[in-house]
Amino acid sequence: MSVPAEVTALAEGSDHLFPCFSRADVSFTQGDGAWLHGADGGRYLDFATGIAVTGLGHSHPELVDILVRQGMKLWHVSNAVRIPEQEELAGLLCEKTFADRIFFNNSGAEAIETAIKTARRHQFVSGSPARYRIVTFEGGFHGRTLATIAAGGRPKYLEGFGPPTAGFDTVPFGDLDALARACTATTAAVLLEPIQGESGIRSMSAYDLERVREICDRQGALLILDEVQTGIGRTGHFFAYQATSVAPDILAAAKGLGNGFPVAACLATEKVAAGMTPGTHGSTFGGNPLAMAVASKVVRLVGNEAFLVDVRRKGERLRAGLEALAAEYSEAFAEVRGEGLLLGLRCVPPVAVVATAARANGLLSVVAGDNVLRLLPPLIISDAEIEEGLMRLRQVGRALSSREIAGVSVGGNKRV
After folding, report:
1. Range scoring the smallest mean pLDDT among 9-13, 20-24, 372-376
2. How far apart are CA 71 and CA 17, in angstroms?
3. Residues with Cβ < 8 Å from 214, sequence gap 6 or more?
4. What is the distance between the alpha carbons of residues 325 and 336, in angstroms, rounded to a whole number?
5. pTM of the model
6. 366 and 325 in a common domain
7. pLDDT one-digit tens code per residue, 253-305
8. Measured between alpha carbons, how far is residue 66 from residues 31, 63, 84, 85 in Å?
9. Exposed end of the chain (fewer CB within 10 Å): N or C?
10. What percent of the chain has pLDDT over 90?
């Protein structure tokens, strides 16, 4: 079997790594706030944030301080003993959300796995063992484990890994009539992202989310929200669901929770979590003192209402600027999507071309489905940095509209 050219090229540059990633030819030596410093000498404005992870920016002094102080005391003990730092963070998260109970993980996929197990276990202990199926929406992305790729149901992620893990039903995005039909006596829960990031910043309206909640209640199914990307202030609310009248039964959080330190959490109500008794689930590293100390500081900083109000204000400012760019450069940009600082710019040329041009102008972004450029700046970004990002995108839009991409250059960074 022939090896794809892009895999060969990657292997030549990274001989000892799995060839799973198509990496841009850029690396970074350090970061501060909204900026990354490249090994190439360039200075890059970070509108990618590790895919919605470093919401408080790079090298945040309070996070560096807590990491060092906790690291000098205790890194790891097992969940066979009490972990005070874990209890503190669990209390903070319950105080700020619908939840009564928390299970700590290391990644978003693990948090989703915990959510699925919790939903199924709840139905089992409630006398409905036949209820084990999970209904999801097309375009959803819930992780890379065998169960979470089955939950997403996307062929490109399922191909080559054998029969998909059983127990998942997928309906068209936004088709609530199809959802109602799919929820049967074997349905344990409905799993969805309030905003689908991977598929192009596709949002579910508050009205539709309320209807989903009604369908779940009517059919005896639980509602699981995947807020791995939308949570921890990214939409201008601590969690995206808090902008609606809906509360889930279970929620998965990760990404921004540790600002880059690996940590995730599954949140649930008392009733739903009650079935997860000793021996039903576990984790070696989940909830270790080092991760808990960092995440507690993140929650205290981001969970402040004044901070969240300012994120919403910044999101409106950036969105207005993007809409102006789309109107001015309609040959390059077609539509603006999203909420808060989780925004998407649907492109006219291939999105990979736009992302490459933006990077050459010192602006980092993330590609998504439906030809959308994801723009995920840190929540601590300044107004001046928002304007700087828009200026760099304006240079890209001008070059793409005039079909002179080779002429794009800003601030001494490399030209395309």
Report:
1. 9-13
2. 29
3. none
4. 10
5. 0.93
6. yes
7. 999 999 999 999 999 999 999 999 999 999 999 999 999 999 999 999 999 99
8. 18, 5, 15, 12
9. N
10. 92
Residue 170 CA, chain-centre distance (Å), reads: 20
Query: From residue 204, how far is each of 22, 129, 208 by CA, in Å?
Result: 30, 30, 6
Tell me, what's the pLDDT at 232?
98
Grade residue 15 by pLDDT with cuts at 50, 70 and 90: confident
Residue 78: partners with Cβ closer than 8 Å, 6 or more residues away: 284
pLDDT at 4 over 90: no
Query: So which residues are the catalytic ones?
Result: 141, 226, 255
DSSP secondary structure, 339-370, as one string? ETTEEEEEESS-HHHHHHHHHHTTEE-EEETT
Which residue's entry shows tokens 């998407």? 344
Angle at 367 between CA 364 and CA 373, to 5 degrees: 80
Query: What does residue 163 show for φ and ψ, rounded to 5 degrees?
Result: -60, 135
Domain holding 14: CATH number? Answer: 3.90.1150.10
Residue 232 — left, alpha, or beta (φ > 0 → left; ψ -120 to 50 → alpha)? Answer: left
Residue of 95, 31, 55, 48 lying closest to 261 (CA atoms): 55
Q: Are residues 282 and 318 in the same domain?
A: no
C-alpha span between 113 and 163 (Å, rounded): 18
Q: How many domains would you assign to the chain? A: 2
Last residue of a domain, one of 246, 279, 302: 302
Tokens of 354: 């736009």
First-to-last CA distance in the chain?
Answer: 34
Which of 260, 276, 302 lies at the terminal end of a domain, its last residue? 302
Bridging pattern class, strands 28-32 and 195-196: unpaired
**CB contact at 8 A, 337 and 200:** yes
For the chain, the average pLDDT equals: 94
Band (407; pLDDT cuts 50, 70, 90): very low
What angle do the packed helices 383-401 and 351-360 form, to 10 degrees?
Answer: 120
Please tell me the distance from the alpha carbon of residue 385 to that of residue 407, in angstroms, as a whole number: 23
Could you tell me which residues come within 8 angstroms of residue 73 by beta carbon, excluding any fewer than 6 positions away?
289
**354 contact partners, CB below 8 Å, separation of at least 6:** 332, 345, 347, 365, 373, 396, 400
Written as six digits, the tokens of 329 are 């450069």
Pairing label, strands 366-368, 101-105: unpaired
